[in-house]
Specification:
The chain is an alpha/beta fold and 502 residues long. The protein has 15 helices and 19 strands. The N and C termini lie far apart (72 Å).
């Protein structure tokens, strides 16, 4: 019996040595009760309060990156919340890359936290993607691990409670501290990170802006820096930072403490991104507001301030023809469609929206569109136009009205139904003639069949509703829509197009 006990004990010790009972490594919340409250209930209330201030702001499903401040919540929480509220909480990411500057040590490179399994906050633990973190270190020597870069660093930790309250379940994070002014090293970082800069992942760049000029100077220098970021041009951003430094502005220590993480992000960009400035405040705004709120008399706005910007980087949705609609374009088209139906109910002509749309907007592009109306999940009308002869915003206005009042399959929409009507818009990219079904991709392409005066089409999303092969999809369109018979498509003209559906 003693021998068996000894063997069991030895096995337990071996398993322990092999790491089978290894406890997870947790980085503690070192900034709780410093940059934010350590009380979980109060923290939830504080973060939720900041987020609620921006509940009417736009949310986007195609967010690629955010630039967010990292000061104490009292000062920068409102601006940070404006960025986090742009995230769609229903959108899932595989992982989140957190990039920030070092406030502790100079690295002349980047430190990736490969040694912890979780980051703790008063709201719970956030998992670290140690596998991806280790891959970065192995891919290029510009990435390493330096414990001192992470132990007391606040710039990444303060982002986590906002993610926890906005997203609920936070995807695994990859914590990266960047500290080098070597442009070639920053380029190598961007090259290593760029394969991860895709639809699967979200990048969050942690940065405050001007430190510590007077209020008026901060507003001026931060405006210049913000405009440079909006261009997406990394050379212009760097030139602006350098010009700010040479300006002789009193007490200006830096115009972006996260300059190097921002450069790394901008080096990964191409023309497929829209950059939107969300909000600007500086610490003078907050201090002055709070004094006025509680009725205190002070000497006015503080003399030395820190600036806070928030930005969202949106990945454009492109068809194979390069046609792009961002979330704001889609929202504007939905509003145009709804207003057109409302005008029709009141007997008014179709409103001309052209003066409300910027001259560079894709809503002026000449392309086709379908407008579908659904009521309680059931089709209530659908009319479309294929022509490329009318601006998109006009087509949507006309098709919305036609779907509501002219679809012969349904009675006209009544005023009391309007609040139950859901509008779906399918914007059609330019049609492309094909010679073979090998060029047609089911679920991606719509098909348009034309022979003489007969024609018919199926939108791409029809394939999502039926269990047809490619040949069956085209055969049904030929027979049921164009009236050419099952095989009539074989000697007809075939065209494909894509639909941006929202």
């Amino acid at each position: 019996m003693r021998i068996i006990t000894t063997i069991i004990a030895a096995i337990i010790m071996m398993n322990s040595c092999n790491g089978q009972n290894k406890q997870p490594v947790v980085r503690p919340a070192t900034q709780a009760n410093r940059f934010y409250t350590g009380n979980p209930k109060e923290l939830r209330q504080e973060v939720d309060g900041f987020l609620a201030r921006h509940k009417k702001g736009a949310t986007y499903s195609n967010v690629a990156a955010l630039i967010v401040p990292h000061a104490g919540y009292y000062f920068s929480g409102n601006v940070a919340a404006s960025a986090y509220m742009s995230l769609d909480p229903k959108r899932t990411y595989k992982r989140i890359f957190l990039l920030g500057p070092s406030h502790q040590i100079w690295l002349d490179g980047a430190s990736v936290n490969t040694k912890v399994d979780f980051y703790a906050t008063p709201l719970g633990n956030v998992k670290v993607d140690r596998e991806t973190a280790q891959q970065l270190v192995e891919k290029n020597e510009v990435f390493s691990y330096k414990s001192a870069a992470h132990a007391q660093e606040h710039c990444l930790e303060v982002q986590l409670p906002f993610l926890q309250r906005r997203l609920g379940e936070v995807p695994p994070i990859v914590p990266i501290i960047i500290s080098t002014n070597n442009y070639e090293k920053l380029k190598r970082m961007a090259e290593v990170l760029k394969p991860y800069f895709n639809d699967d992942n979200l990048f969050i760049i942690s940065s405050d802006f001007s430190h510590y000029p007077k209020y008026e100077d901060a507003c001026e220098v931060d405006a210049r820096t913000g405009k440079a970021i909006e261009t997406g041009d990394v050379e212009q951003f760097i030139a602006t930072i350098e010009a700010n430094a040479r300006s002789g502005m009193r007490n200006l220590d830096t115009s972006a403490c996260g300059e190097f993480p921002i450069i790394t992000l901008m080096l990964m960009l191409d023309k497929r991104y829209d950059i939107k400035h969300l909000m600007y405040q500086n610490s003078g705004d907050i201090d002055n507001h709070e004094r006025l709120r509680v009725g205190e008399q002070g000497s006015g706005i503080q003399s030395r301030v820190v600036g806070y910007h928030s930005f969202v980087f949106l990945r454009q949705e492109k068809s194979e023809e390069g046609f792009v609609l961002n979330d704001e374009d889609k929202l504007q088209l939905k509003e145009i469609a709804l207003q057109s139906i409302k005008d029709g109910l009141e007997g008014k002509p179709v409103t001309d929206f052209s003066s409300q749309i910027s001259s560079s907007s894709p809503l002026h592009a000449k392309c086709g569109a379908f407008v579908s109306l659904h009521e309680h999940g059931h089709l209530r009308g659908c009319i479309g136009h294929f022509g490329e002869d009318v601006p998109l915003h006009e087509i949507v206005a006309e098709m919305a009205r036609a779907a509501a009042f002219e679809d012969p399959r349904f009675s006209p929409v009544r005023h009391e139904e309007l609040e139950d009507i859901n509008i779906e818009i399918s914007v059609l990219t330019p049609m492309r003639r094909i010679q073979s079904l090998d060029e047609f991709e089911l679920h991606r392409h719509g098909i348009y069949i034309r022979k003489g005066y007969r024609s018919g089409t199926f939108l791409p999303q029809v394939a999502d509703e039926v269990d047809w092969t490619k040949e069956e999809f085209v055969g049904h369109c030929s027979q049921d829509k164009a009236g050419l018979g099952w095989n009539g498509w074989r000697n007809a003209e075939l065209y494909v197009y894509e639909a941006i559906v929202f």
